[in-house]
Write a structure and sequence with these properties.
By secondary structure, the protein is mostly helical. Helix content is 74%, strand content 0%. It has 19 helices and no strands. Helix 10 (276-285) crosses helix 16 (414-446) and helix 11 (288-319) packs antiparallel against helix 15. The radius of gyration is 22 Å and the shape is globular.
Length: 513
C-alpha cells in the first residue's frame, strides 16, 4: 500500500492538485477532533510558542540568575544546553512514540509536564534543581514539538489546512525571536523566575483545550526502554558537538580535545544508525519534500538564532543603547512575523505554497544583509527596515514550509516528520549563536581587542544561512512534485499482535501489508 492510499475505513482520497496550487476539496471531520478543530490548532500553536520562547528567554535572564544563585557564566550556559540537548535528543524518539501512541494523550501529558517543569524551574533555589527542571522541560517540550503539527494537520479540512499549519509554523520561530524582546521586561519587573512562571497558565490552558476538543483513539502506553537508549545516544552525540563548538571559540583552543569530541559524536551517529529510530528518520527523509522542508527550516533557524543573539551585543557596543531600547527595537521582527503569518496561511490555501515560501526566504535574506551592513552606524530607521524584512520573510516562509512538510509526510510517519522539523529548529537555534560566536571571537582575537571587533563579521552567518536555505529549498523541491492532498485522517490502526508487541522497537516506516 502506498503512502498516498487511504488507510482508514471511510477515508476518501482527494485528487492531488496540479503543479503548486492550493489544496483540494474538503473532506470529512477527522475522528481525532471531538470539539472545535480551530481551538485544537490554537492550543497546539500556543504549546509550540512556549517551547521556543523558553529557549531564548532564559538567555536574557542569565545575568540576573547567575548573580542571584551565585553561579558562573560557564555554569549558566548549561541551563541552555540542557534544554536544547533534551529537545534534540528526544525529538526523534518522541516522534516515533507519537506515531505509535494516543495523540490526545501525548498532547495532554506534554502540556501538563511542561507546566510542571516550568513551575519547578521558577521555584528552584540552586543550580542542580534548575538544571533538573530544565531537563524535564526539554523532555516534555520534545513531545509537544512532535505532536503539535500532527494535531494541526488533522484538525481542519484540507481547504483550511494551510492556515492551520501556518499558525504552528509561525509560532515556533515567533516564540524564539520574542524571547529576548519579552523576556527582558519580565526579568526587569518580576525577576528571572518570571520567564518560567509565565508559561504555566498557558500550558494549563492548553491541557483544558486538549481534553475538551480532542478524542482518544488508541490506548496510551508508556514509551519503550529502547527509546531511552536511542535518546541517550543522540544526547551524547549532540552535547559532544555543542561542546566542540564552544571550545572552538576559545582564544587558545585545544584542537586535540575538539577532535576527540567530534570523534565521539561520529561514534554516536554510527551506533544510532543501527537503531529503529534511524530507519524511521531515513524513511521520512526519503520523501524529497520532507527532506527539503527539514533542511531549509534548519538553515533558516541558524539565521534566526544569529539574529536574536548578536544585535543586543552589537547595539550596546556600537551605540551604547540600553537593554530596554534594544528590546523595543527587536520587537519589530516578531511583530512583522506575527502579522504576516495569517496572510501566508491564506496564500498557501489559495495560491502557491512553494512560491510563498521562496518569497519569504528572499525577504529574509535581504533583511539579514541590510542588518549586517547597517548595524554599526547606519540610521536606526535602516535597522527597523532590516528587522521588518527579516520578520516578514520568516512569517511568509514558516507556514508554507510546515504545510508542505506535513502534507508530504507518509501517514505512518507524521510524528517522525514533525519531530525532524522540531529537531532541526532546535539545532539551528543552538548552532547559529555558536557559529556567530566563533567568528566574532576569532575577529576579536586578531583585532585591537575593542568590544566591537569581529561582531560585524559574525553577522555573515545569517544571510549565508538563509541564502543556503533558499537554494536548497528551490533545488530539492523542484523535482519533488506537488504534495499529496490526502484527508487528515490517522494511519491504519495496528493489528492486535502488533499492538501487544513493543511498537516502538521496530521502524514505523514499514507499511502493513
Amino acid at each position: 500500500m502506498s503512502p498516498e492510499t487511504p488507510r482508514n475505513p471511510g477515508e476518501q482520497a482527494a485528487p492531488p492538485p496540479s503543479g503548486d496550487g492550493p489544496p483540494g476539496p474538503p473532506a470529512g471531520k477527522d475522528p481525532l477532533i471531538a470539539g472545535s478543530g480551530w481551538f485544537a490548532v490554537v492550543a497546539t500553536g500556543l504549546a509550540i510558542f512556549m517551547t521556543t520562547f523558553d529557549m531564548t528567554a532564559v538567555a536574557i535572564a542569565l545575568p540576573d540568575l547567575n548573580r542571584e544563585l551565585s553561579i558562573s557564566p560557564h555554569e549558566g550556559e548549561w541551563l541552555i544546553l540542557t534544554y536544547a540537548g533534551a529537545m534534540v535528543a528526544l525529538g526523534l524518539p518522541a516522534g516515533r512514540y507519537v506515531d505509535a501512541s494516543d495523540i490526545r494523550g501525548c498532547f495532554v501529558v506534554g502540556s501538563l509536564g511542561f507546566a510542571t517543569a516550568s513551575a519547578l524551574a521558577g521555584f528552584a533555589v540552586d543550580l542542580p534543581q534548575l538544571i533538573g527542571a530544565r531537563l524535564l522541560q526539554g523532555i516534555f517540550g520534545a513531545l509537544l514539538a512532535a505532536v503539535a503539527p500532527v494535531i494541526a494537520a488533522r484538525s481542519v479540512p484540507p481547504s483550511q489546512r494551510g492556515r492551520a499549519l501556518s499558525i504552528i509554523g509561525v509560532l515556533g520561530p515567533l516564540g524564539a525571536v520574542s524571547g529576548p524582546a519579552l523576556g527582558g521586561p519580565l526579568v526587569d519587573t518580576w525577576g528571572w523566575q518570571s520567564v518560567f512562571f509565565v508559561v504555566v497558565p498557558f500550558s494549563l490552558a492548553a491541557v483544558v483545550v486538549g481534553l475538551r476538543n480532542l478524542a482518544s483513539l488508541v490506548p496510551m502506553r508508556p514509551p519503550a526502554w529502547s527509546l531511552a537508549g536511542e535518546s541517550a545516544i543522540v544526547a551524547v552525540g549532540t552535547l559532544s558537538v555543542f561542546a566542540a563548538l564552544t571550545r572552538l571559540a576559545e582564544r587558545n583552543p585545544s584542537y586535540l580535545l575538539i577532535a576527540g569530541l567530534f570523534a565521539a559524536a561520529a561514534v554516536c551517529f554510527l551506533v544510532w544508525r543501527r537503531t529503529a529510530g534511524y530507519g524511521a528518520a531515513r524513511s521520512a527523509l526519503a520523501v524529497p519534500m520532507v527532506a527539503a522542508c527539514v533542511l531549509s527550516l534548519t538553515l533558516t533557524t541558524v539565521a534566526s538564532g544569529t539574529l536574536y543573539y548578536l544585535p543586543p551585543f552589537a547595539l550596546e557596543a556600537f551605540r551604547g543603547w540600553s537593554a530596554s531600547t534594544i528590546g523595543l527595537l527587536l520587537l519589530f521582527q516578531p511583530l512583522a512575523m506575527g502579522a504576516m503569518g495569517p496572510l501566508a496561511g491564506w496564500l498557501v490555501d489559495t495560491w502557491k505554497p512553494r512560491a510563498t515560501a521562496a518569497i519569504g526566504l528572499i525577504s529574509m535574506t535581504a533583511g539579514a544583509v541590510l542588518l549586517m551592513l547597517g548595524i554599526e552606524n547606519w540610521p536606526a530607521g535602516v535597522l527597523v527596515a532590516a528587522l521588518l524584512l527579516a520578520g516578514l520573510g520568516l512569517g511568509l516562509f514558516a507556514g508554507p514550509n510546515q504545510t508542505l512538510l506535513m502534507m508530504s509526510a507518509p501517514p505512518q510517519l507524521r510524528g517522525t516528520s514533525a519531530a525532524l522539523s522540531g529537531t532541526g529548529r532546535q539545532i539551528g537555534l543552538a548552532l547559529g549563536p555558536a557559529l556567530a560566536t566563533i567568528i566574532w571571537l576569532s575577529g576579536a582575537h586578531s583585532g585591537t581587542g575593542a568590544s566591537g571587533d569581529g561582531i560585524v563579521m559574525a553577522f555573515i552567518v545569517a544571510p549565508v544561512a538563509v541564502a543556503a536555505a533558499l537554494g536548497a529549498f528551490l533545488l530539492m523541491t523542484g523535482d519533488a512534485g506537488a504534495p499529496p492532498q490526502r484527508p487528515p485522517g490517522p494511519p491504519e490502526p495496528a493489528r492486535p499482535a502488533e499492538a501487544a508487541a513493543d511498537a516502538q522497537s521496530a521502524p514505523p516506516g514499514a507499511a502493513p501489508s
